[in-house]
Amino acid sequence: MAFREIFVVFFLNTFMTSVYADILLETSSTWEGGEIVYPKGEPKITSVVLRIGEGEVTQFHCHPVPTLGYILQGSLEVEQKSGKTARFNQGDSVVEVMRTVHRGRAIAGPVEIVVFYVGEQSTPNTVLPENDPEFIYCDR
Question: Residue 26 in 3-state DSSP?
Answer without folding.
Answer: coil
